[in-house]
Amino acid sequence: MQRRKLLNNELERLDIDQFKAIDKTPVVLVLDNVRSLNNIGSVFRTADAFLIKKIYLCGITATPPHKDIHKTALGATESVDWEYRKDTLTLIEELKAHYHCLAIEQTENAMQLQDFQPESGVHYALVLGNEVKGVGQEVVDSCHGCIEIPQFGTKHSLNISVSAGVVAWDFWSKINRK
Hints:
Keywords: Methyltransferase, Transferase. By secondary structure, the chain is α/β, with parallel strands linked by helices. The chain has helices spanning 16-21, 37-49, 67-73, 76-79, 88-95, 137-142, 160-175; strands spanning 25-32, 52-58, 82-85, 100-104, 111-112, 124-129, 145-148. It has one domain (13-175): 3-Layer(aba) Sandwich (Alpha/beta knot), CATH 3.40.1280.
């Protein structure tokens, strides 16, 4: 069996106009004080891959255009809608009117990701935190709940861009399961 790698032009990807017009996954990502520009760019690329509706960049989280964000986003800052907000907590309070807000964090009584099933017709705001401190406690307190990505090794956390990829894929696959 031949396993020739496909060329980019064989992948039949959307162009930016098609991406903007297509129905999105009912999920927005909120980056709470993410400091690494490479992580931010990587989250943009993941958001593009799984048709995430929007990214909110909060607090110290840098915004496009920036060469280090562009380096990992590879153009996804042009396809994925985004908005900067100074204060994550204020944003969460606004989003709660239309979104079920969930912090991706290790907390008491957090639901394990594999046990969470998105509800049909519900829109979700998923909050991902700073590389060292995670999601701010006041933001965790304001969210409707928390989801934890299970881990089985010696480390206590995943990189924020890896967490975004795991959660975005999980939500996309559960929502689009036929």
